[in-house]
Design goal:
This protein is mostly helical. The protein has 20 helices and two strands. It has a two-stranded antiparallel sheet with strand order 1-2.
Length: 413
């Protein structure tokens, strides 16, 4: 038998030392075809992401999710697809899915600042629901994400603003807002937030300067005038406060808060008639707020119109009872423990008690003070005024007992 390896003429038999696919030249061809397919998929994925972005801009969240999901199928490493699908999930209020997508975008492109910022927004927002009825306000994670985004994009004023908004430390927040203003001197929101911190710290002059700059940038913003008016009032410059509230009313006469704020300053200045007029307009615009009725009741009581004062205090109590019942229902639904009612409703009972006391109706006055004490057992003022009512009604023993309790609780005339 011949051992010649040369095939016979016309024979189709070919000796193959290795499989065709493993020969070097064919391996390169296969890889090249795979690369072409991959590059084609990546190009198509980019096109789909752009379509998804356009849908996001139009709030077409489901279409955006569909485009980005297909982009991810074609290119599982496309960080931009995960990021934009996260934006769409955010738009649909599917926050857990959004955070998962932002995290994937970060995993595949850790130098991409935008998903850090977007994830930080969700960690910091009240709207992020982690599970069941528990609201997760994870400010620590939010600050960490904003900080990383700032490292990657250090000249982005909005990132400093967002980080400042979740700071617990006022000084750190001030530094962030100041840096945001340095980067973008036309950022009216940063001036506003920095002014709020200055006002909280009692630095009213700096607060007014920042509110004024905010007004320069947004001269039609009635709220800015209102809040600067509050700051002037806190500083004791009541004429400028009145001027700011009046400008706020001119810009937005439909907002009850402007009238109420001006009414408070008029009342403080002893101009009860003007205060009553402003409170009445505020009530006409927003009759659901107990505080405005309480304030108007105080003004009526100052001018000796006790019947109208009592009517206003009664309405304030009714509205506060409704609010308290609603809050307790919400807490019961969410599994929280209802808290004892206090604050404004207690003050309304004390004020109505004072009005009853002024017209000699001591029994009703004592009943109101007693209810205030039930709602707020450590309220020294309620004990003191109930003592006065007992004293006026001739019950010296109970009066002395209440005066002693008020003193024990720290009451100072």
């Amino acid at each position: 038998m011949s051992t010649d390896s040369t095939p016979a003429a016309g024979s189709l038999s070919i000796r193959r030392r290795q499989p065709l696919a493993l020969r070097p030249s064919n391996t390169l061809v296969t890889r090249g075809l795979q690369d072409i397919a991959r590059f084609g998929n990546q190009a198509r994925a980019k096109e789909l992401v752009e379509l998804g972005k356009e849908c996001c801009r139009k709030n077409k969240w489901d279409q955006a999710i569909a485009y980005c999901t297909e982009a991810i199928r074609l290119d599982p490493y496309c960080a931009d697809a995960y990021y934009n699908r996260g934006l769409a999930f955010t738009g649909k209020l599917h926050y857990d899915k959004a955070i998962a997508d932002y995290s994937e975008a970060i995993r595949f492109h850790p130098q991409f600042a935008a998903p850090y910022a977007a994830r930080g927004d969700l960690y910091s927002e009240n709207s992020y629901e982690s599970a069941g009825y528990d609201w997760a306000l994870d400010y620590g994670r939010a600050i960490a994400d904003y900080t990383e985004a700032i490292r990657l994009d250090p000249n982005n004023a909005q990132l400093y603003f967002c980080r400042g908004a979740v700071r617990d430390d006022c000084d750190e927040a001030l530094r962030d807002y100041t840096r945001a203003i340095q980067i973008d001197p036309n950022d009216g929101d940063a001036y506003f937030e920095r002014a709020n911190i200055y006002s909280f710290k009692g630095d009213y002059d700096r607060a007014i300067m920042d509110y004024t700059e905010g007004i320069r940038l947004n001269p039609k913003d009635a709220i800015l005038y209102n809040i600067r008016g509050d700051t002037y009032h806190a500083k004791g410059d009541h004429d400028k406060a009145i001027a700011d509230y009046s400008e706020a009313i001119r810009l937005d006469p439909s907002l009850s808060a402007h009238y109420e704020s001006r009414g408070i300053v008029y009342q403080y200045m002893g101009e009860q008639a003007k205060a009553i007029a402003d409170y009445s307009e505020a009530i006409r615009l927003a009759p659901q707020f107990a505080r405005t009725y309480h304030n108007r009741g105080n003004a009526y009581r100052e001018i000796g119109d006790y019947d109208r004062a009592i009517a206003d205090y009664t309405e304030a109590i009714r509205l506060e009872d409704i609010d308290a019942a609603f809050e307790d229902a919400v807490k019961a639904w969410t599994g929280e423990t209802p808290t004892a009612t206090g604050g404004l409703i207690t003050a309304a009972y004390i004020s109505r008690g004072a009005a009853y006391n002024s017209i000699g109706d001591y029994d009703r006055a004592i009943a109101d003070y007693t209810e205030a004490i039930r709602l707020k057992p450590k309220d020294a003022e309620a004990y003191h005024y109930r003592g006065l009512a007992y004293q006026a009604s001739g019950d010296r023993a109970k009066a002395e007992s209440d005066f002693a309790e008020a003193k024990q609780l720290g009451y100072k005339p």
